[in-house]
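Review form for a predicted model. The reviewer records the input and the model, then writes brief findings.
Reviewer: anonymous (R2)
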Amino acid sequence: MKKNKLIRAVQQALFTSGFLICSVQVAYAQEVSEDDSVALDDVKVTARKVQESIQDIPVAVSSFSREDLEDAQAESLDSLKGAVPNMNLVQGRGSASSANIYIRGIGQPDALQTFDPGVGVYVDGVYFSRIQGALLNLHDVERVEVLRGPQGTLYGKNTIGGAVNVITRRPDGITAGEARLVVGDYGALSASAYVKGALSDRTNASISALYRLDNGFVTDALTGQHYNDRDNSSLRFLLSSELNDQFSIDFSLDYTDQENGLTLGRAEAPLVALDFADLSAPIILSLPSTEEYDFSGRTSFTNDENQELTHLGASITMNYSFNDQWEFKSITAHRDLESDSFIDIDATELELGDVFVGVSQQQTSQEFQFLFNNNAGFNAVLGMFYMKEDVPSHQEAYADDFLQFAGTPLDFLRTIDDDLQTTSYAIFGQGNWALSDQWGLTAGIRYSNDKKEYSRTTSTFSTAGPFLEGTFAFSDSDSWGSVTPMISVDYQINDSNMLYASASKGFKSGGFNGRANAASDVSSFDPETVWTYEIGGKSQFLDNRLRMNYAIFTSDYEDFQARVAEDISSFPVINAAELDISGAELELVWLLSGSTSIYSSVGFLDADYKKFFDFRQPDLDRSDDTPPFSPDWTFRLGLNHAVYLDGGAAIRLGVNGNYTGDMYLSVDNQEVLTQDDYWLFNAYAVYDFANPAWSVTLGGKNLTDEVYKVDAQEFSSVGNIQTAYYGDPRTWYVALNYRF
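Model under review:
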């Protein structure tokens, strides 16, 4: 059955691409004679740690240049939602700085520090170990590469689902810069600047800055208070120096400061209280709205509680060439994240699921790479990786409206102080052989080991007295290791067409229950692993005017780490499930002429549980449940067109539509936490003045004002909390750009 669904998916993807080709064939025939030299640019990526053409590597990877990001109106990383087949990338639940990333049905939406990311985020080769702080601004980015599927050979810890590789703009000897001022609705205002140039014959530097402000799109109808608002600033300084012909060093320093308002969602289920005098009859406190979400909301926080974050990072990258064949690279980095966030989990004026989470995270990492190329058909990367992370946190949970005794409310406060220390190391190697003019072989292997030490103290204070009050503390440690190999074979049919087949393993570290409030909750969970088998191809047609990359895959995903709820204070984490995940992907770019291009992508995903064991209901077979954040179809279609005017001015136009299929937003498949399929449409128009330094942009996102959910909180055992978070409504902006 699964095989048949996959075959139908491939047929549908090929039909879609064929329809696109046929529908614009006439236009192509008319335009091709205008300039026979027009062709797509050769896209370079560093997906395998060295610079290569995207068409030459047997890897499913999408790349977005700075121009692509501008056309996509991408201000932050979540702007790439819909741009990559089978990727779901949204702002994380209740947090203005977290990135919820799923690729091919694998990810991790919970920002609790005891969970590791399922998709690795890297900036200039430096791993970001938390999904908090990973919702990056893209104003100074050269390109973004998204690698789909496990990257267990060349990349650091926890790339079981894929990797998002962000490469910032590097300074060179040319003095240049740009400035951008943006205004829009909801009080949006942002200003950014970038300058680069030479400090000496061998040393170059750049500096970029961004300030972004808006009033937020959620409003309290009674008080007029705005929520989901942003007040962000960031700064990056880069210094690049070639000390001699063999040795170069790059220094990077970045700083982000965020003072964001509360991120409010909407309660989608009745909220209830419990009366200890009669636990059989929960007391209904609030009923959900049956109307379409109108971006209004209330909260129990009334003292300007917000979400503050500072993120500081520094890195030094050194490159040394021993000779024409051997090169050495060292990446040394340190990152410091401080976050104080209030989150109203129940999203009402009730005090049921209100929390404060203060996190202080530090990570230091070191990676060594030895790169070899014999210039005769063989190249390799050998390396070592080390990371030390310390994540202490202080948390408070407020629930004065949740518990009663004979109708009398009981005050409730829980405080948590915990600390997680992780030491990770790995050794890895990968080689690429050109076996002949047509056949190629790639093989790699990595050994990873994570050691974690966790301590937790939780205290409960309540007017219920000893019945609820008390302090519980524990500490634990464990380590997990894994060998993750990969192998691929590629066949070059001709200069424009390549086929490949690959098998690869991914690993995501185990951990401890970061919500244990009693001895019965103390537990550790095992790592997740996945084997992915893939067949794909890279093709170019019509004198390199049409590029088409495609893949079909199947994954065996084991020991899925699921946070479940047992009762009002117990939230165990279990290795609940094994999954079969299969799918197909197609990406297409067609340059119709020097002024017109179309692009499209199609993703099909069939994610099913082979088994799902829930100890709360041991007699219930949950294998028919649907894995969360795994829409069956993702589709994108866009058009860019330029009109050149007399006198040297030009108008550039772009429009795209992104489709996302049905999906669940919670592991427990709560019906109110689902999102039906939907479309998002975006457009922009740019006027380039005859003076090439100046341009004006008018843009809009979600033009049809679609109301759609992107993430959810599910704590149904605590007041029946089931909260959904929604994507942005229709927005517009005007930008003035200056380049020199």
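Findings: Helices lie at 2-23, 25-31, 66-71.
Further findings: The chain has one domain: 2-739.
Recommendation: see findings above.
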